Amino acid sequence: MKKKIIFLLVSILLIVIAVISFFGYNYYLDNKEKILLQNEVKEVLKYISEKEVNLKKIEEITSPKITSGNRLAVEEALEEYILVSANAINTTITLLNDERITNLLSDTNFQNDGPAFLTSKTYINETKQKLLQNKKDILSLTDTSKIMSYFKNSTNDIYYEEMYRNLAIGNGLKETDIKTFSDSIDKIINLLDVSSKALNLLSENSNAWHLQNNQIYFNNQELLNTYNNLIAQIK
Q1: Quick one: average pLDDT of 64-76?
Q2: What is the 3-state secondary structure (H, E, C) of the chain?
Q3: Measuring CA to CA, which of 1, 13, 72, 235 is 20 to 30 A from 217?
């Protein structure tokens, strides 16, 4: 009888040890791989700035899988969010750096596209729509519900959902950085709006202005004042 009791106790002890070992090992892996993901985010952020996004380098960093088990769902969601963010910011930078925007009110454009400015007007409308959509995309990157939508929790384990939340929101793109891009977009949209009004003014009064020595001259003071007042609205 004693032998059976001892055997039973030993069996229970072995089961307890096995359970503790299992959860202890998983806890170890959770922490180890969470640190790997934190380091990956920090490495990616080195290649995202106001002036440039190195998409190739970011893709190189995020391509290899560095986690396992339930952490893999966290990694996949985090990397998808990172890539979407990087692409949105890269699109913004490309649009903001388009020299055609700043050349709309240049003497070269007046010469090449005036007096109707059909090409310029089409470009302004298309670019403004792209910028407005891009601003919407950029702002959504700090929205918690949008960020969490990338995470597919197949295990329904709140622990891994919180792990993803902390990694994406705690270590990801900052609201201040997003606001910087948003403000830059607003300035370019303002420039496009002013350019549109100025070019419409010129096209509607095509006989009241001319170019001379790379300068625009108006035939009457009222039109000159209106044009100058528009240009003064550029922020």
Answers
A1: 90
A2: CHHHHHHHHHHHHHHHHHHHHHHHHHHHHHHHHHHHHHHHHHHHHCCECCCCECHHHHHHHHCCCCCCCCHHHHHHHHHHHHHHHHHHHHHHHHHHCCHHHHCCCCHHHHHHHCCCCHHHHHHHHHHHHHHHHHHHHHHHCCCHHHHHCCCCCCCCCHHHHHHHHHHHHHCCCCHHHHHHHHHHHHHHHHHHHHHHHHHHHHHHCHHHEEEECCEEEECCHHHHHHHHHHHCCCC
A3: 235
